[in-house]
Amino acid sequence: MDKLLRDKILQHMLYRKECTAMLICYGLGYSLERYLAVRATLEAMLAAGEIEYNAARLTWRLPNEGRGQCLA
Predict the structure, then answer these.
(1) For 1-29, how does the pLDDT look when each residue is reduced to its tens digit (9 = 90+)?
(2) How far from 23 is each of 19, 26, 67, 71, 72, CA to CA, in Å?
(3) What single string gives the DSSP state of each residue in 24-63?
(4) How far is 19 from 67, CA to CA, in rounded Å?
(5) On the CB side of 11, how many CA atoms lie within 13 Å of its CA?
(6) Is the CB of residue 51 less than 8 Å from the CB of residue 63?
(7) Where are the domains of the chain?
(8) Coil, strand, or helix at residue 17?
(9) Which of 10, 2, 8 is nearest to 61 (CA)?
(10) Is residue 24 within 8 Å of residue 12, measured between CB atoms?
(11) What three-state secondary structure class fits 15?
């Protein structure tokens, strides 16, 4: 997993409750050429338990987002 890309994705996700992989690419200023790298990093983050995937909405989010838990 690309650690720099992972950190950028996490930083971006702190400002959004849920987002699609395409929206993450757009938010980071990446073209569609980087979409597969973003998608692969998201999959690795999901496997590591760092993020959650909502299949019904096709969105990614931080595990504690919207549940009243503190990020600290």
Answers:
(1) 789 999 999 999 988 888 999 999 999 99
(2) 6, 5, 23, 22, 25
(3) HHHHTT--GGGHHHHHHHHHHHHHTTSSEEETTTTEEE-T
(4) 17
(5) 9
(6) yes
(7) 3-61
(8) coil
(9) 10
(10) yes
(11) coil
Cα distance from N-terminal residue to C-terminal residue, the chain = 24
Rounded CA-CA distance 53/61 in Å is 7
**C-alpha distances out from residue 37 to 15, 43, 64, Å:** 21, 10, 25
Amino acid at 55: A
Question: Quick one: tokens of 29?
Answer: 């200023």
Place of tokens 């973003």: 38
Q: Which amino acid is at 7?
A: D
Q: pTM value?
A: 0.80
Return the CATH class of domain 3-61.
Answer: mainly alpha
